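Customer escalation, tier 2.

The customer says the design service returned an amino acid string that "doesn't look like it belongs to this structure." They asked us to rerun it and document both sides in this ticket. The original structure tokens are below, unchanged.
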């Protein structure tokens, strides 16, 4: 591998990889921040069970199961 044999080759590889890694990290932080700021999604089954309990269609014992 003559390309990696000298110092210039490694500088070229680092010059390519460092911006690539930094871009991936910035995108990751942006995605993580957006996902944390969104409200948590509630399970549709739990939401329906809560509505039925609020309307009095099921008993507290059935709601807890």
């Amino acid at each position: 591998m003559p390309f990696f044999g000298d110092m210039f080759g490694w500088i070229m590889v680092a010059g390519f990889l460092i911006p690539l890694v930094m871009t991936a990290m910035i995108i990751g932080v942006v995605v993580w921040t957006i996902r944390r700021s969104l409200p948590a999604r509630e399970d549709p089954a739990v939401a329906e069970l809560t509505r039925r309990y609020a309307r009095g269609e099921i008993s507290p014992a059935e709601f807890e199961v």
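Tier 2 assessment: The sequence is consistent with the input. Helices lie at 7-37, 44-55, 60-64. The mean pLDDT is 87. Sent an explanation to the customer and offered a walkthrough call.
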